[in-house]
Amino acid sequence: MFKKGRIKTNRCGGDKIMKVGLIGNQNSGKTTLFNYLTGMNAKIGNWPGVTIEKKTGKIKGTEHEITDLPGIYSLSPYTTEEEVSRNYVFEENPDLIINIVDATSLERSLYLTTQLLELNCKVLVALNMADILEKKGLKIDVDKLSKELGTKVVQISALKETGMDDLLKAIDEDFTTLNKEIYDSNIETGIKEVESKLDKDLKHKRFVAVNLLEGDDRFENFSAPEVSEIIEKISKNYDTDLEEIIATQRYDYIEKVKKASIVKKQMPETLSDKLDKVFLNKWLAFPIFVVIMFLVYYLSVGVVGSATVDWVGDAIGALGDKISEGMEAIGTSDWLTSLVVDGIIAGVGAVLGFVPQLIILFFCIAILETTGYMSRISLFLDKVFRRLGLSGKSLISFIVGSGCSVPGIMTSRIIENEDERKMTSILTPFIPCSAKLPIIALFAGYFFPDNSGAVSASLYFFAIAVIIFCALLMKKFVFKHTASTYISELPEYKLPSLKYVAKEVFDKVMAFIKRAGTIILLCSIIIWFLLSFSFKMEYGVDIEDSMLATIGNKISWIFEPMLGTKSWGATVSAIQGLVAKEQVVSSMAVINGLADDVDDGSAIFSDGGVFGFFTAASAYAFMVFNLFSAPCFGAIGAMRRELGGTKRMLKAVIFQTSFAWVLATIVYQVGSRIESGEINIANVIIGGIILIVAIGIIASKVKHKGSECSSCPYCSSCDKK
Known about the structure:
By secondary structure, the chain is an alpha/beta fold.
């Protein structure tokens, strides 16, 4: 909520040294432009009260201070980023706002522009990527666009660094930004009436008035009693709320601007157009996506991944032997040698052994992102996701979550609808992340050696099916909201940038290794201590008499239905996954006292060992439990922030873990009977197909529940048409 006293005097066009705000949509070229204007000489910090990066610098050749604001789509603060941007405008009172507009997505970009033009400040529109638009047969008349918007427009290419001289010149120009009347007479009359009731010294009166009409409670301090009467009077002229009316009229105005300023010319069909006919075909798009993701996991966990893991495992094993020999040679005590070799090297090394597979996985995902394919499949799946109560943007969180659940959950902030954002935060940890890959690779590689890639891919699609099922449940019983729309541009297909791909892979792998060097190292030491000592603090006791075994035996009954037996080792390893999912494999290695032979599981699952009881059925069930149970502490903390409290987070964690237990139990009970021949696998497949069809039918029914058009969010593209 804003306070009157915090709004400063507007200095637009006043001082020689200016305060400039750079604002625009995500992926509009804003950061590239900022780096050019500042010469990448920027200060980086966080905005007060939030963990969003703040970048400020001086425009090169001047003393003007420029601030790179978070990428947003509107000044209506549904997200933290949008709130930060609006607070900046009101509290910092910039002398100039540079609004970078993506010419290839003019309708989406100009929505924010219409809001900025309602402010009492100079707005300089930097039209970016117009050269790309021209390749599509469209050209923007900059003069007409400037006239329609009522402010100065400069055409640039942030990437190619063209038009920058014109932009720098325009920054110091003395031009006027008009508050154009873009709404119908009723709304415009209401705006003027509300403005007349506001404090005469208040800046940004038109902006405040529009937001009061929209029902924005953040401006309630500005509202006089008469304002409510004005809003109520105007509302009687419309069948729906004023917020929707204003948004609709904004888009009508944008459409008018587009028609006046865009010139079309006939262009031959591009390569992207031809490829989209295949990749976005309504019949082929989803099967192609399935095949692509299958190949990703087949390569990373199967053929290529398995081959690369062997030499890493051998290297770690050789390192453990050398260190053990060296420590014995200098007379190191048995417990210290055991700590280093059986605790640290076995624990950390067990996880690091799977780094080659992670490299291949991250490489494949980065390739798909840079080519433009992921943007397309995200948009294609939006219609499906909306039926489930999710947003098409949810797929972005799921893709990011394949690297790590923490940033995946945090990425849900880009989703405007609160319910969709919360659902995405809860469901994102279901996606197999890099921390879960070692578990999948270990079990799939040993119990399904000839089909490890296929089994790994099956878990990915299993996760998608579970997300769909849980989304339907939550939409039906928890988040009963109206679905939102997803606006996104489709970039041109392009060859992957090897520099970008290499950086993405390096950053994600290093993040994984850092976790191994910190959290997993600490946990490995703790596991070694609990395994090596009894509660009487006796060292070197039999493993069954250790503190860890004693604790595990007390609670092993919980996991018996999904493992077929009581196993303290599997129990404590699964619980360790709450700290970090990688720790499951690390814990198993430490329990077995292994510094080598972890990669193929031959030593871990040997007969007579702690984990020798595992069968193919219990192995798959164990993977399922670790895939869907509560994520690591880091992801749980991220969920708490995004869900808005500890109570909601605890409910989510209980739901995830309980659901994982039930699912894993079903998998084991059915799988063990298939192994024994009690159930025909063909019956299971047929039953699965029937279940998928049933879920699809439920989804379609949920989508069109109710017949009144007034409550249906699917107007422009509704199937009922």
